Amino acid sequence: MEWINLLIAGIFEISWAIGMKYTHGFTLPIPSILTVIGMVLSFYFLALALKQLPLGTAYAVWTGIGTIGTVILGIILFKEPVSVMRIFCILLIVSGITGLKLISN
Question: Do residues 50 and 44 lie in contact, with contact meaning Cβ atoms separated by under 8 Å?
């Protein structure tokens, strides 16, 4: 269950990171409120995961999920550049997350 909580935390991290782009510096109320809700939920599910998972592992996986998700959605939603090196770096993050999952108890 802790890995599911961590995945949910990562998804909410993606939501608030992308949401921040839509707040225009927290000047738009609805996107700002939704972004803050995403932040709170992300931290809540991370805290639940931390009851069982090691801090370093959980934090690295959480930020990795957020990084991968925001890069992919940045490419899709905001037409951010795609390059071989960028994809390679995402794959390195995925391999690191996979490795941490495999070696954790």
Answer: no
Q: How far apart are CA 3 and CA 71, in angstroms?
A: 22
- Structural domains in the chain (count): 1
Buried-exposed string 61-90: b where 16+ CB fall within 10 A, e elsewhere: bbebbbbbbbbebbeeeeeeeeeeeeeeeb
Domain span at 84: 2-103
Instruction: Please write the tens of the pLDDT for every residue from 10-69.
Output: 999 999 999 999 999 999 999 999 999 999 999 999 999 999 999 999 999 999 999 999
Contact 23, 39 (CB under 8 A): no
Query: Is this prediction's pTM over 0.70?
Result: yes
Task: Write the CA distances from 93 to 13, 63, 100, integer angstroms.
Answer: 16, 10, 11
